[in-house]
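Hi there,

I know you've been waiting on this one. I reran it after we fixed the sequence typo, so this is the corrected version. Both the input and the resulting structure follow.
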Amino acid sequence: MTDQVIDIVMATPDAIPDMAQSFVASWGTFDGAAVGLVAVVDGEAVGTVTLKSDDWRPREDLSPWLGGLFVLPDHRGRGIAGRLVAALADEARQRGVEILYTDCHAATVLLPGWQPIENSALFSLDLAT
């Protein structure tokens, strides 16, 4: 049997380039796979957001999802998260997505047009108009 370990990313920084390469290979198309966007400032990756086919198991009927919105603390407050959300909405629209879903409240503040779904913490964004 092979040695298998699950550890936090910070404890295994040497694995990051290999994983990043695998992610890039997987995220090339939106056919149920995720599409990741990254914000780069002066050559440094400072933020990310992801388009995923599913994100919330109790509502597998809702797809696709905006998730994984993150900006490094030193780069927050500069509009990067808002640009990531807008860019992801544009990317989804280009891929034929008509409605985008999220449970990320920050995304709903950063890009106008999100509507609550069924009195829950879920939101939808109509991309068809």
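Quick highlight: The domain at 30-126 is CATH 3.40.630.30 (Aminopeptidase).

Best,
R. S.
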